[in-house]
Amino acid sequence: MFPTAVRLAAKPPGFFRRSVEELSRVSKFIWNLESLQTPTKPYHLLDFEDESTVAGCKTMADRAVGGFSTASLDHIPADPSTNTPAHARFHGRISTRLPDNWRVERTGYAAFRNQDRGLWLFGRLYWDLDQHYYLALRVKSDGRRYTVNIQTDTIVETDIHQHRLYTRHHRESPSSSSSNPLSPLSSPEAAKLPEKAEAKYPGGIPSSLSDIPPPSTVMSSAMATTPGSTGWQTILLPLNSFVRTNHGLVVEPQTSMIRQRVKSIGIGSTDRIEGPYDLRIHRIWATNGMSEEEVDEERWICGSDALPVDEGVRTRWTADPREILANSRAQGDKEPKTKGLKGLRDEWD
Question: Measuring CA to CA, how many Å separate 167 from each of 124, 137, 147, 213, 295?
């Protein structure tokens, strides 16, 4: 078999195309000496402008165990008249109705993730996010509760690292308060919520999974719709704040995510509220902050909710660019020295 043009153009990409793309990425990475400094460019993981990316994902719902929730992931073409990019639409209906099966005690679940990335010339293909601090998602939310799920190559295959997808349209789940008149839970069920929470989170609810967004989560400006908003927004979730779980339960002791061997990324609906849901996703990528080359697209899609250029990315994390430039020139260097990845990690910690 030879890597003909037909095989290289196949969608979804086959073995040869995956190998060529990964070799090209690694070659650029080495040639540009990116391993010696903190990356300033985005590392695209799932770009849903490409219809083949949508086709390369799988949906999951409680129907697999006899439930009645549905999940679909469709490719939506771009609409320049409304500044809407081509994207994926994750939609369906959540049902908490139990099947006629005494083994199933809980339903109301729907999710999607990319399928395994397959093999390339040097074995199984993974994403290496070790040099990036944030997982970025550009989404248009309906306000329901969603969780971002990351699976890595670990000993326990069912371990998942999770983080709530907090958006400007985020609202607390009605089921989070027994006094809420909109709560779908009856009084006896509401009374058991503290017990269930204690059993699920013995060490307390992690801030990354709570109803209140933690300060470390970077979102567009305010928590309410602003004039000029398109509904789209870019969310930056710190990779070191993801929580390791197994079958929905927090695992103790917590261990760091193996960022060098990320297998899959997905999103799930977790509020268990009856009714339809609709989440639009444009792109998911790894980043250290919004760069100047991304800002035009960000402003075009997100409007007034666009994230600004990250000063750290713009200056390559130099504490005082003018001072370092002067010192570098005094030493005969044409370019200012950067702090480097190790220095940036010290700041993160």
Answer: 34, 10, 11, 9, 19
